[in-house]
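Input sequence (381 aa), recorded before submission:
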Amino acid sequence: MSQSIVNSWNEWDPLEEIIVGIPDLACIPADEPAFRAKMDKATVNQYIPGLKTKESIEKATRQLDNFVNILKNHQVTIRRPDSIDFTKEVKTNDFSVPCQYDTSNPRDVLITIGNQIYEAPMSWRSRFFEYTAYKTILKDYMRQDSNFKWVIGPKPTMKDELYNLNYPWKYDENRIEYIKNYNYVTTEFEPIFDAADITRFGKDIMIQHSFTTNLMGIDWFKRSLGPEYRVHTLHFPNDLTPFHMDATFVPIKPPADGRPGIILSSPDRALANNEKHIFDGSWDILSAPIPDHETSTPLSLCSKWLSINCLMINPDTIIMEESEKKTIKFVEDQGIKVIPCAFRDVYEFGGSFHCTTCDVRRRGDKQSYFPNLDKLDNLTI
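Predicted structure, token format:
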């Protein structure tokens, strides 16, 4: 009888196995519609497509390896993706790009829900083939775990019709008006989603409608999960580049002993007012402290709010960037143990602790963490 390996329902149960990314042969992508909309505040001339520097790859590798050692010291099994040459050009029947991206961020591509790992279709052309780096791992799970289900989202064509090609590039009143109306750089031409726009709360799944996940993608995900889950669409209307939820709205402590759970929220991009009722009585949404660093790092494409992009080892222990002193103190004041870890050299590769991992096994079962929604469900039976 095969071993049960894949099992994870939320972001906080005790962690037992995880995939951690690698920065090998990582590239700066070339200009493409979805990438362009992410770049506004940066100096565009910095973003010369092609292989990142040997020095930056080595520095990121050292910090990722140190992070892996911390996880191993907590008896977590580690898997790493295959090394892929992202300098290669990609050509399909519908698009071409001169180079690709990287494999530093498994959580953008993969998400575990129960005994299933979902493979996201993705939204950038430069990331179309990123899933290939995880095939060895997923095939191993297929062989070793007879209960494991490998679910692949519908592969998009990524034709021009998927993108608003004239989307306002500058952060001006025009873009503010677009965002206010949830008019994003991606259209509803075909279903797309990045896995990092999804956060798991057991029976309840939160999905951000964003530049990287459209409503058709959310609908596909909801249909795939089926009626035993409650899927909620979230918006953050002050975010001028809505792009992955795990540096915007992050659960850090589950409900326990009659007390609500805690979610850290970026005060710059608060949850839409008409969606806050989902959490009433079950979760407290707390504004995170202003990060110690006013910006992320050069070439990272990420915001300063990587300060809240963290990894929970268990309901009482969390790994956070060591230099974010204000955020660490705030989290510790909530009764949570913080393990500080240097990670800013990894930011250039697209994320922090949550982005660079995909948890595969956490010790626990599917539960509801929303008693307020359970009461509503009982009323409708």
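Checked by second reader. Helices lie at 33-38, 54-73, 106-109, 135-144, 173-180, 215-225, 325-332, 371-380.
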